[in-house]
């Protein structure tokens, strides 16, 4: 039974992400956890001194959260009516990031699927703050779904890598399960820097070839910025899912901090799966 966490703020994008998960895993036995967190919009002095229950604010917010989750759960059950799937609702007075971490540990979550933008997400921001923090802190894979993504099964997957890390089966487990289920082709993209691969990189590449088997095609991209290379690959080839390993020693972190992002934009027009390094 695959256990998938679906955080929602009830925005269109968060519901699109939930529907993406249910469609992608329609042939898989899954428990989906619909999660909504709430915190008071204004922290009154009496609220800080006392407790939410004393002034009734917490109860009101909890009731509202539960009602909205129940409504969403019923709509999804009616719409998809999949005997392989069960939905559980969970509401909490907490910050989203903290509750996600707690839920992943408590429920043994295998995957988080969420939108890239929150209800108040500014258009110029690459990902919403919550999505970025979730990706950086999560101990399980995360799939971030961009707004208004028209569902496509992940048949063509792009997997950029610099071969700087060891590829173990447990690291790629969820990624491989999705690829196997959808009979996907995995496009491994190496952005070379003009130098030959080191002995370690060659070893890691061989590990990856063995793990991915016949499903993989290996591409060498010219020496340019990783962001530009990913964007160019997406333009030339039809891609349904972008997958990367979260690794502080490689280019992943630079996607969120390099000034070049602001200049050329990281145009993620497809769901983006991030694997934590285990």
Automatic annotation (TrEMBL):
Pfam family of the protein (one): Usp
Gene3D superfamilies membership: 3.40.50.12370
Family annotation (SUPFAM superfamilies): Adenine nucleotide alpha hydrolases-like
Residues of the UspA domain: 2-146
Entry superkingdom: Bacteria
Family statement drawn from the similarity comment of this UniProt entry: Belongs to the universal stress protein A family.
Name this polypeptide is given: Nucleotide-binding universal stress protein, UspA family
Species this protein is from: Pseudozobellia thermophila
């Amino acid at each position: 039974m695959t256990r998938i966490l679906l955080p929602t703020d009830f925005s269109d994008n968060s519901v699109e992400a939930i529907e993406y998960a249910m469609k992608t895993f329609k042939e898989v036995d899954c428990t989906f956890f619909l999660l909504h967190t709430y915190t008071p919009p204004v922290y009154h002095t009496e609220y800080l001194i006392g407790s939410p229950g004393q002034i009734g604010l917490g109860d009101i917010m909890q009731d509202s959260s539960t009602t909205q989750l129940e409504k969403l759960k019923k709509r999804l059950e009616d719409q998809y009516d999949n005997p392989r799937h069960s939905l559980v609702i969970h509401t909490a007075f907490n910050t989203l990031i903290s509750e996600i971490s707690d839920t992943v540990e408590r429920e043994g979550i295998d995957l988080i699927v969420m939108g890239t933008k929150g209800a108040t997400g500014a258009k110029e921001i690459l990902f919403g703050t919550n999505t970025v923090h979730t990706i950086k802190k999560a101990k399980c894979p995360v799939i971030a779904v961009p707004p208004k993504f028209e569902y496509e099964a992940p048949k063509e997957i792009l997997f950029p890598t610099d071969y700087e890390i060891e590829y173990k089966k447990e690291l790629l487990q969820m990624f491989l399960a999705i690829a196997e289920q959808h009979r996907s082709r995995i496009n491994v993209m190496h952005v070379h820097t003009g130098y030959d691969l080191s002995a370690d990189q060659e070893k890691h590449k061989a590990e990856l070839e063995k793990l991915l088997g016949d499903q993989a095609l290996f591409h060498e991209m010219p020496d340019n910025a990783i962001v530009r290379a990913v964007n160019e690959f997406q333009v030339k080839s039809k891609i349904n899912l972008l997958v990367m390993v979260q690794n502080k020693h490689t280019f992943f972190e630079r996607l969120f901090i390099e000034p070049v992002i602001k200049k050329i934009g990281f145009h993620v027009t497809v769901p983006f799966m991030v694997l934590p390094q285990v």
